[in-house]
Specification:
Elements: H1 2-12, H2 16-35, E1 42-47, H3 51-65, E2 73-78, H4 87-99, E3 104-105, H5 109-120, E4 124-128, H6 140-152, E5 163-166
Parallel strand pairs: 1-2, 1-4, 2-3, 4-5
Helix pairs in contact: 2-3, 3-4, 5-6
Length: about 170
């Protein structure tokens, strides 16, 4: 995927920031469809520090800015510090903060534990933690978050959260 993105930018002159915007737009459209008619409008975005996290930030912002009368409640959990984001992901964090001003940083087990109640009460969870830059298995607080989400959802077999979207 990284090579496809690079070639798209190089050959067709489409900026990588625009590719991220398009990815986020499609994620937000899927989430919007899944939440249609549901009374629980909370959707949680678990965002990593890379471009996959940037895609999640775009989707959260688009849902927050939605003017279609849909009362969605996107919550962003950033796995790391804002100053660790670079490039397009950092730009989309800035755009999210201008739109909402709210992120919850998850840096360790204690902050993950504090976030778990909100994650558990969401109708939908968007997993934007890791992407093509991952080498080897997930580690640290991200691995803990994945294990907790798997536990919460019964490995995606339980009714809650009703929808888990992995980008």
């Amino acid at each position: 995927m990284r090579e496809v993105d690079r070639l798209t930018t190089e050959r067709y002159g489409i900026p990588s920031l625009q590719l991220m915007e398009e990815a986020g737009k499609h994620i937000s459209n899927v989430v919007r469809l899944k939440l249609h008619g549901n009374s629980n409008k909370r959707v949680v975005f678990l965002c990593g520090k890379g471009n996959n996290g940037g895609d999640g930030l775009v989707a959260a912002r688009l849902l927050k800015e939605d003017k279609l009368g849909v009362d969605l409640e996107p919550l962003v959990f950033l796995f790391g510090s804002p100053n660790e984001l670079r490039g397009d992901a950092a730009e989309n964090l800035s755009r999210w903060l201008k739109c909402s001003g709210k992120i919850t940083e998850v840096k360790d087990g204690a902050s993950l534990e504090a976030a778990c109640a909100k994650i558990a009460s969401a109708y939908a969870v968007v997993d934007a933690l890791l992407g093509t830059g991952l080498l080897g298995p997930a580690a640290g607080v991200i691995a803990e978050a994945i294990a907790r989400l798997n536990e919460l959802s019964g490995n995606a077999t339980l009714a809650r959260p009703a929808f888990i979207f992995c980008r």
